[in-house]
Amino acid sequence: SELAVGLTSTFTTSASNGTITLNDADNTFTGAVALNTDGSSGNATIKNDRALLLAASTVDGTLTATATAGNITQNGALAIAGATTLVTSGQGADIVLTTDTNAFTSELLITTDETGSNKDAHVSIDGGTTNLIIGNSTIDGNLTLLSGGTITDTDGSTVTVKGTLTATTDASASVITLNDLAVDGAFTLDPDGTGAVTIVNAVNLNLAASTMGGTFSGTATTGDISDSGNLAITGTSNFTAANTQSVILNNNNSFTGAVTFAALSGNLKNVTITNTMALDLAAMTLAQVASSGG
Asked: Does 130 have pLDDT greater than 60?
């Protein structure tokens, strides 16, 4: 049956692999909720009929957290060893877990189900110093990822984002490798130092202003590649679009390394590139080319 708690709640299992299951749809936790389990099968599940505020928690198994009519936020660090599943289903309901000491050891599975007409159910995740892994997810808004480790997606997963995607690593030249994306909006990419970036998007690839000190590889498997802001890429840059599609990079870009253009099959239709310095073009196959450089 449902629980109604007006103040804070703490749930702790002391037995190894003991679980916490609080999944009644009518639960009402008004204050912050802390969840603590021990053992790799010590899973925790919580559902709230309003916004869900997570207090500092350590879950040695999986965490499944659902807010059916509000945001999911935190006021303490989360250390989750197993997969983390986060779900909101309210109008404009966000997921904001940005404490910089979070540690999500396994993949995150995220759903924001915007019930209104706007795509504004956003997600912001800070993975602390732990590698951040995104699994099958559907986000009806923007996705913002920050990690002191690498940012990757689970092989074979699909990460669908109706808004923009921002990915940042802030330590150890950590790489960003996201090969299974379907992002409708623009990408902002900011790896630490010489961290390499690889992006594969199932639709058009639109690059917003980004600075990358390492190499960049961008693929749009069914569409064009374009920029909506200035790109500064120190290493080599590889742009791959779908057959008969175009690559249009006409902002005030700075490509220091060699730039390569390719089609997944067949030929590109058009390539337009603007560079504020000398332009090093690698071999390409295309029907038309337009380029300008410093």
From this structure: yes
